[in-house]
User: What shape does this take?
Amino acid sequence: MTADRFIAMTMLFEKYARLLDEDRLEEWTDLFVEGCLYEIVSRENVRQNLPLSLMLCDSKDMLRDRISALREANIFNIHVDCHVIGPVHVAPSDAGWDVSSAYALYQSTQEGETRLFSVGRYHAHVVEHDGALRFARQRVVVDTGAILTLLATPI
Amino acid sequence: MTADRFIAMTMLFEKYARLLDEDRLEEWTDLFVEGCLYEIVSRENVRQNLPLSLMLCDSKDMLRDRISALREANIFNIHVDCHVIGPVHVAPSDAGWDVSSAYALYQSTQEGETRLFSVGRYHAHVVEHDGALRFARQRVVVDTGAILTLLATPI
Amino acid sequence: MTADRFIAMTMLFEKYARLLDEDRLEEWTDLFVEGCLYEIVSRENVRQNLPLSLMLCDSKDMLRDRISALREANIFNIHVDCHVIGPVHVAPSDAGWDVSSAYALYQSTQEGETRLFSVGRYHAHVVEHDGALRFARQRVVVDTGAILTLLATPI
Assistant: This one.
């Protein structure tokens, strides 16, 4: 893999995390292709081959709907996100690339109290679309499950 | 942006964090230009457009004074820092670059007890000065505010 | 340092962390040279120049034995790891490179409860061996000591 490819994938993941942190969810949605799959699954369910998802959107429209619903519910204002992600792993696959990275997601209240919300790993399939890198699939495998009943926003 | 530019900014941020973690605060100060602005502000104050800073040094001399005061107060020995920072975002701006990254800062006591001290985002303006990259501005926007009354050292 | 070198070291550290997270410990062992040194030491002991190690393996065989013992004890299943590491620092040294990075290691139970297990810094010496980058030395300096009596797996 070339240096340019590695850095382009790093920048894509950086943008993904930053748009979530800055509550720019509509722009975040634009990082996906129309027929995308966005899924949050627990590592334990993956290990046991259970098909349960904590969140599942199987198109960009569905992802947009979800974001709209969140905007209307005004849940955003309850907390702010801070994603710290590690270096990416990139492997060519299926006319695109499988890209993964570890992440830690912290949530803070407006009063400035921070808690660790979730750690885990992104497993993305990235393709080139109209000259830009886009997510064809983003599967978030979370190690942290206990607090996911509170899940409202994407990870 | 070229690969070299991206990596140079990554290395600058890495050095910034490492010098703080290794308590090499005088060398850390050397990463700033003379007329620099170093500021810690809470995300909530930024959102409300409040001009309050948790720390504000508007020159390298003032930053040096602050470090000297900390050295004399011997507050350093109370804890050690560990910064884990994410990938940088780089955008050309004003004869330099705006560079940001998410961070998580952990503090540990000499007895080895670790707590999350602060998460947030660096918003830097970086310029080239005498052939080296330097901070003209570093604005640390912290999500975590509740513990900042204890703030003593830079983030 | 060239962009390619920086990225190659980033990829080595990424692989190191990912193999641990995915419980692929035998492959993780393969990242070391035969006469390697793997050591976990506390930052406080380093500061006081105390020779105590929390874990010490002074060859790849010893590292393999340790992994085998862990496999037999079946301690792995108690938790899963998630390493989030920061950008690497690379400096040429002794026919190889000194490479360091900060890390945060989270552990989660099968029930999905996550805790911060350890933060600290990797101090590696990396060499080229048969065309691949390998660890000749990995010294993990941990800031977090209070929970290390529970230490079972590598960091």
Notes: The first strand of chain B starts at residue 32 and ends at 42. Chain B has one domain: 3-142. The domain at 3-142 of chain B is CATH 3.10.450.50 (Nuclear Transport Factor 2; Chain: A,).
